[in-house]
Amino acid sequence: MKRILLSSVLVLGLAMSAHAQEAVIGAILPLSGSSATQGEDQRRGMELALEKINADGGVLGHPLKIVTEDSAGRTATALDAAKKLVSVDKVPVVLGEFSSGITIPIAQYLLQQQRININIGSSSTQIRSLGKGEFSVLGLDDVSGAFAAQDVFSSGAKKVAVIAPNNAYGQGIAEAFAAKFKSLGGAITSTVLYTEGQTTYRRELQQLAAGEPDLYVYTAYGKESATINRESFELGLNEKKWYGLYLTMCTADSDPQYVEGQIGMDLNYIGGNGADYQKAYEAKYKSGFTSTFNGFAYDGVMLVAAAINKANSLDPQKIETAITEIGKNYEGATGPIVFDADGQRSAQPYLRLTIASGKAVATQ
């Protein structure tokens, strides 16, 4: 397990009751494994938040620190990381992970330990029912699935095949998409939920093609999507349109020749007040955004820092109360964040994108 300190100061521990002590929070990200590209981009967003917070005076009079653990994209590793953050680092708040199939079990553990979990990258609707202490700074899949279904139907496709990972995220968004698409009068020719970590997906792709759909709808984590895109190209399936659910996640690690012309939806990752954040990102990393997820990690850290200062305490219950209060009207880099009664972002804008000349371009 790789441990990264986003501070030059060694973390010696944290008492959660005395605000005279340094504030330390935790994060669990996929810094290796199939979603490493997105995990590293989340880390970048958190790093920029930390720099801004500490330049503005820190938290409770001290620099804020983040102990970041690598989940490696595995549930068992992520759970070990969560236990370490609670028992050794004694953090009141943990941000992460990325995959819903990992976020949900670590959140369940953290809530049992009366800690707070900030979801900065997962969208399964199962997150809504986790309970008090769970907050999401991005919208869940009941909203994104319906958006995508409407978008695909409006494009003229009436018969589609769907492929998604067989986990909480994949099951949830496939169901949400199908429900809305069928209500519009469309048909799902087949739905394939694949097992993650395979070296080939040819069998699943051939199963998709057998239904002769008008268009393929897919979602996959970075390095798995690279395999799916390459093999669909080799099988000639790219002769029909491909629609990516969270398109930049699906294409970030793929050879550009395999994904050129793909369309899809993604999170609207920058809001009306996000220009300074985008400028800071581009200046520090000498490029545009790698994914759509870094801004949500940035907002998560900024929100937690504001809550600790508002609570004037590192006590998790007081921080939770402060997050609820701030979340009634919080202006983040990704746009307005307003939590509903379940602590979930109540409104999430989305983008329609096309891959053109190797880049994701927003379209109408």
Using brief descriptors, characterize the structure shown.
single chain, alpha/beta, 12 helices, six-stranded mixed sheet, seven-stranded mixed sheet, 40% helix, 364 residues
Order of helices and strands: EEHEHEHEEHEHEHEHEHHEHHHEEEE
Number of helices: 12
Structural class computed from helices and strand pairing: alpha/beta
Q: Please give the order of strands in the largest beta sheet.
A: 8-7-9-10-11-14-15
What is the helical fraction, as a range of percent?
40-55%
Distance between the termini: 43 Å
How many strands, what sense, and barrel or not for the largest sheet? 7 strands, mixed
Low-confidence stretches: 1-19
Give me the Rg, rounded: 20 Å
Overall form: globular
Residue fraction in strands: 15-25%
- Please, what is the average pLDDT? 92
Q: How many strands appear in the DSSP assignment?
A: 15
Description of the molecule:
The protein is of the alpha/beta class and 364 residues long. Helices cover 40% and strands 20% of the residues. Strand 4, helix 3 and strand 5 (116-119) form a beta-alpha-beta unit. The strands form three sheets. It has a seven-stranded mixed β-sheet with strand order 8-7-9-10-11-14-15, sandwiched between helices. A six-stranded mixed β-sheet has the order 1-3-2-4-5-6, with helices on both faces. It has a two-stranded antiparallel ribbon with strand order 12-13. It has helices at residues 36-55, 75-87, 100-112, 141-154, 168-183, 202-209, 222-234, 247-251, 256-259, 275-285, 294-311, 316-326, and strands spanning 3-5, 24-29, 65-70, 93-96, 116-119, 134-136, 159-165, 187-194, 215-218, 241-245, 263-267, 330-332, 335-337, 350-356, 359-363. The longest helix is centred in the N-terminal third of the chain and has 20 residues, at 36-55. It is built from twelve helices and 15 strands.
